[in-house]
Amino acid sequence: MNESLHVKIEREDAVTVKKYILTSEKDLLETIRYTRNYNLLRKQELILKEKMQKELANIHALVQAIEANLPKEGLHYQDTEEKAQKSAITQKITKSTKKRTQVTEKHKSEVERQIDDIRERLAALNTE
Q1: How many of the other CB atoms lie within 10 Å of CB of 115?
Q2: Residue boundaries of the structural domains of the chain
Q3: What is the 8-class DSSP label of residue 99?
Q4: Residue 96 burial (CB count, 10 A)
């Protein structure tokens, strides 16, 4: 019926198996962390692409308006105000990208803490 079966395992084999299990668990947690990070970055990318498309549409409309006001023949020059607007837009995009990609120690996720714990346990097993 409910009989227990006990198998004797050598200490060395038990430690080796435990190392394999901990290593597998650590690898799975790292995979979860990478997947979450990828999903976050992908969402940010889509948001930035949408903003960029809107800004490009605005810039295109500005360019068309400027071209309509320019004389048809003669010297072509670029308005300094338009240059300033373009550089301001690119600066905004680069600033927002930099802010989103910074990862700080304060926001360390639970998965990363678990990975650190497993690494410590593996190190302890390796010293035995």
Answers
A1: 19
A2: 11-127
A3: H
A4: 14
What are the DSSP calls for 5-64, one per residue? Answer: ------HHHHHHHHHHHHHHHHHHHHHHHHHHHHHHHHHHHHHHHHHHHHHHHHHHHHHH
d(CA 62, CA 67): 9
pLDDT digit string (tens) for 59-116? 999 998 888 887 776 544 455 666 677 777 777 776 665 665 555 545 567 778 888 8
Is residue 19 within 8 Å of 122, Cβ to Cβ?
yes
Entry pTM = 0.47
- Locate 16 and state its tokens: 């080796």
